[in-house]
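Re: the multi-chain job from yesterday

Posting the exact lines I submitted so nobody has to dig through the queue logs.
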Amino acid sequence: MIPIARHSVLRAARTQLYPTRTLSQSALARLLSTLAVLEQRDGKLQSSSLSAIAAAQKLGGSVTAFLAGSGVKATSAAEAAKIKGIEKVLAVENDAYEKGLPENYAPLLVENIKKGEFTHIVAGHSAFGKSLLPRVAALLDVQQISDITGIESEDTFVRPIYAGNAILTVQSTDNIKVITVRGTAFQGVETEGGSAEIADGADPNAPASTEWVSEELAKSERPDLATATRVVSGGRGLKSKEEFDRIMLPLADSLGAAIGASRAAVDSGFADNSLQVGQTGKNVAPQLYLCAGISGAIQHLAGMKDSKVIAAINKDPEAPIFQVADVGLVGDLFEKVPEFTEKVKSA
Amino acid sequence: MSGLRILVPVKRVIDYAILKVVPLRRGIPRNVQPADMHSQQKIKPRINKAQTGVETAGVKHSLNPFDELSIEEAVRLRERKGPIKVEDILALSAGGPKTPDVLRTAMAMGADRAFHIDVPEKGDGGPEPLTIAKMLRAVVEKENVNLVLLGKQAIDGDQGQTGQMLAGLLGWPQATQASKVEVKDDAGTVEITHEVDGGVETLRAKLPMVITTDLRLNEPRYASLPNIMKAKKKPLEKKTLADLGVEDTRRLKTLRVTEPPPRKGGGKVEDVDGLISKLKELGAL
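And the result, C-alpha cells for all chains:
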C-alpha cells in the first residue's frame, strides 16, 4: 500500500511542478539570445567553432553565429549556415578581420553584440578566443568566464581551477555573459541539416593597431590534436628529438592518432610547442590516450584526464601516471613501444 | 620615444611545485629541495570544508611562474640595450599582508620599485581580472607607463584574461602568449612572436602596448643573495584600490568549489600483448 501512496503523492507533486517548469523554460528560451563567435582560417571553420556552437545550443535560446574575414560568405559562413540549430549567421566580409586581430575584431564584436542585444557571447577557448574575448568583455564592462566545462543554467557555469584540481561553480551577475568553452567538454554539433540565413553584420571599421607579419604553423597530415579520437603522447623519457620521432611517429601512424607531448618534451626540444598537452598547452579528451615516458605531473593530467581510456608505458612503476591510467605497462619504452607498434600494425 | 617605462603586475599564488612535479628545464623545480620532491608529489590543493575555495593557510606560496617570466623579460630589455633605454621597471601586486614577499622577489630579480595594492584577504580568491585590469589602467595613467608585461595566466584561477582586458580598457595593442619580444627602433616599434594553435605568429605594433608572456619566452634568473639584500632597500609603496579609484565589486558569485571526479588507475599488465588485449577489452583498439 505504501508504495502506491508514495506514487500518487509523487505524481501530484509532479503535476504541480511541471507547468511552472515548462513555463520558465520557454520564458528563458525567449529571452536568451546567444552569439557564437566562430573561428575561421582561410575560409574554413575551425574546430573551436563547433564547440562554441555546441555550448550555445546547450544554453537553450536562439543561436546566432558570427564570422568575419575575407570573403567569408561563400566559404565559412556557408559552412556555418548548414549547422543544425543555428538561426542566423552574421558575416562581415573585410580583409581587415581575416587574421582575427583583437584590436579591431573586439570593437567589431562589441558593435554587433550591442546591435543584436545578445545575452550570451560564446567562443572556443582556443588561441583566438583566449586573446579576443577578454578584450571584448572589458569593452562591455563584463567579467568573463573562461574555459567552462559545464552549463548549469543560463547564469551558472562550471570551470576547472588550479590546473583542474578543483572545480568551481560560478554564477554571473553580469547582464551579458561572455564565455569561452573547453572544446573537449562541448561536442556533438550536427554539421548538416540546417539552413540559416546569412546576413551582413555591422562593420565599424575600427583601425587595427597591430600588424600581422607572418606565421609558422607546424604542418601535419595527422589528425588535429584537440579533436583526434586517438592521441599518442611522449615525454622526457624519449631522450631526444630523433628518438621522439623514431618511436612516436610510427606509433601514431599505426593507430591513426594525433601526436602530443609533455611540457618536459617540448622544453627539451623533442616536439613542437603546439603539441603540448596540459594546463598551459592543449586539452584533449580522445577515446584513447596512450603515453610513453610521461611521469604524469598534475599539469599534464590537467590536459588529458578526461580521456576515455588512458594507457601508459613507463619504466618507473611509481610514476603518478599509473594512478590514472586504465592500463599501465611498466617497461622500457624503447622496447615496448616499437613492439606495440608492430603488433598493432600486423593485427 | 624617450624611454621604456615598464609595469610588471605579479601575483602571489600557491607554489607551483605543489601543482607541478616534473622538473623544469633547469633540472630541479625552483625552491624545491631534491629531498622534498617525493613528498611534494602527494601534495595537492585541498578544498576547504565550506566548499568556497582552496585551503591556502599554511601552504607555500610564491610568485606566479608566468610573472617571473615577465619580470625577467623586463630586466632583459634593460640589459639588451635596445634602441630604447629602459627607464623604469615597476612591479605591482594586489593582495594581503604577505604580498610584499613576491614584490621583494621581483625587485631582487631587477625591478626598480614596487607598489603593493593592499586588498584585505576575504578568502574569495581576490579581486576579479576586470577589477585588476581597471586598477592597472589607473596605474598606467598615473605612472606614465608605456609597456605592460603580464603573465599569460595565473596558475590558481587559470583565467588568462587580465592582460587582454587591460589592453582593451586602454585601447592599446596586445600580444598574448609571447615567446619573443624585440624592440625594433627608437620610434617604439615592437615585434612579438607569440604562441597560437598549431604554431607561432609574428605581430608588429607600436608602443604603448600590453604583452603577456608564455613559458617559452625566457628562463628567469635566480635572485642572488646580494640582490636580495639590495631589494630590501628599494622603494615599496603601499596603496589601496580606493587610491586608484577602483571599487572591488564582484561580478561572479562562487557557488561552490569541489573535488574533480576521481579517476582510478586500472592496474598494470605484464607485457605488450596484455596491453593490446586490455585496450581491446576497453574498446579503445
